[in-house]
Amino acid sequence: MRQILPDEGSRKWRKTALDFQRADFETLREHAAMVQQPTDLVIAPVELHKRHLKQRLSQAEEPLTAFDFTDGATVAKRLLDTADRSTQSLDRVDRLHLLDEILADEGPPREFFEVLLGQDPTSDLKMVERTRSEIEAITNYHPKRVESYKEAAETLAPPIEADAHDVLDGVLRVERELRRRTEVAPTDTELIRLATREIVESNGSIWESAYPDIERVVVVGLSNVSASLIDLLTATARNTTVDAAIWLRPGTESALSSRLPLTVVADPGEVYAR
């Protein structure tokens, strides 16, 4: 299914080049070939799924040379390295340490999470980090998605509506502080956002320099797909000649095929700044 969305500032509709399609192992197998350089970039964020695909290809006596099995962060780092940008990011341990410092200070981040948790937020940093990660996954901090979240929250009954707003506001405040207090990307997802903007701002040339032989890029093996990967593939599809697709598994295709395309935005990589 080829996604359609309205142009910014108009009611006209146009097609994007990002596909959401049902696919399985046999779809991947069709591209197996003995080549010198990989032609298919297969983004499988779960390591177990990567190993499973490689094993099945080997059992089917298919060559692996056409495939580069990878993840979103690795792709982002290669793109940023090609653009002479930093590829450093905080690991989870360092991020939790910084969260502890942020939430120990009196200020909005602490206040929001104190209300939500009903206790000192520094006593449950893992919950704060999990909440931050979930909001990042569904919005990628993009202005349109943040506004959509707010609109959806308005439809909820009190006090759930107030809690939903507090979650978003608390996470956005924490995210700003994370960026302010470190010189590297606070998360690997931030690296993906930076790489997405590099693709857009270079009109795709940075992708072509980093991956000159890649003809196809797909995301596989997920029951849900993060907004950051959708944005990365959207930017790639719109700015390069590469075929980009998100493969949906049979069990979740019916739900995701109607929902995921609605998350595509006109300016992938942009970040909510208010």
What does this structure look like?
This protein is an alpha/beta fold and 274 residues long. It has two domains: 161 residues, P-loop containing nucleotide triphosphate hydrolases (Rossmann fold), CATH 3.40.50; 90 residues. It is 51% helix and 12% strand. Strands 1-2-6-5-3-4 form a six-stranded mixed β-sheet. Helix 9 runs parallel beside helix 11. The longest helix is centred in the middle third of the chain and has 22 residues. The protein is globular, with a radius of gyration of 20 Å. The two termini are 34 Å apart. The relative contact order is 0.18. The N terminus is likely disordered.
From the structure above, extract its key features.
6-stranded mixed sheet; 51% helix; alpha/beta; single chain; 274 residues; disordered N terminus
Task: Please render the helix and strand layout as text.
Layout: E1 2-6, E2 13-22, H1 25-29, E3 40-43, H2 47-59, E4 67-70, H3 72-82, H4 92-104, H5 108-117, H6 125-139, H7 143-154, H8 160-181, H9 188-201, H10 205-210, E5 216-219, H11 227-239, E6 243-248, H12 253-259
Parallel strand pairs: 2-6, 3-4, 3-5, 5-6
Antiparallel strand pairs: 1-2
Q: Could you say which structural class the secondary elements and strand pairing correspond to? A: alpha/beta
Mean pLDDT: 89
Unreliable spans:
1-16
How much strand content do the residues show? 5-15%
Strand and helix order = EEHEHEHHHHHHHHEHEH
CATH class of the largest domain: Alpha Beta
Q: Determine the N-to-C terminus distance.
A: 34 Å
The major sheet is characterized as: 6 strands, mixed
- The helix fraction, in percent, is 40-55%
The number of domains is: 2
Radius of gyration: 20 Å
CATH fourth-tier homologous superfamily of the largest domain: P-loop containing nucleotide triphosphate hydrolases
Which fold name fills CATH's third level, the topology of the largest domain? Rossmann fold
Number of H- or I-type helical stretches? 12
Shape call: globular
CATH 2nd-level architecture of the largest domain:
3-Layer(aba) Sandwich
Number of strands: 6
* Main sheet: strand order: 1-2-6-5-3-4
